[in-house]
Design goal:
The structure is a single chain. Helices cover about 40% and strands about 15% of the residues. The termini are far apart.
Length: about 180
Amino acid sequence: MPVRKQSAVTGDFSEREILFIYHYCSNGNNGTEAAISAGYSPRAANVQASRMLANPRIKVEVDRVMGKTLAKLEVTVERVLLEVSRLGFADIRKCFNADGTLKPLHELDDDTAAALVGMDVIEIENDGQTRVVAKKFKFADKKGSLELLGKHLKMWTDKIEVSDRPMVYVKDMTGRKKPEATD
């Protein structure tokens, strides 16, 4: 008989169930891989994963573990939207001083710094002193970020517009007589 362990929230689980839950939460929510990692046969892992994920006790425990992980990482809807909006609304002008020179990295505001994915740097050696100069900033994909925000806000959804009402013909294939119309 499988060994059962007590869960703080939802009761007892077998060792395989516990392994499945934690592997599922840590591998990007791949049920088949989690079932294999928990010791189930690779041939039956897909079916076993479906069964496990359909079990309300296991669903509750997965949600609890995922919630703890997201809380620990401080991942919230608001924070994700903030970061995506920083990428989408990044303004290249904030990288420059009034005289047109690039600002040093430490002088950039938080929104601009968050949108940077890289920069090209050149080291110049002059009279024994090394000077580091940033030559080019690289920003995150603005279009992709704005598309994500637009999808979240349901700004563009696929809608099919039908210009004319289609004609529908109903044909009686039973061979019965039609009822007579009454006044």
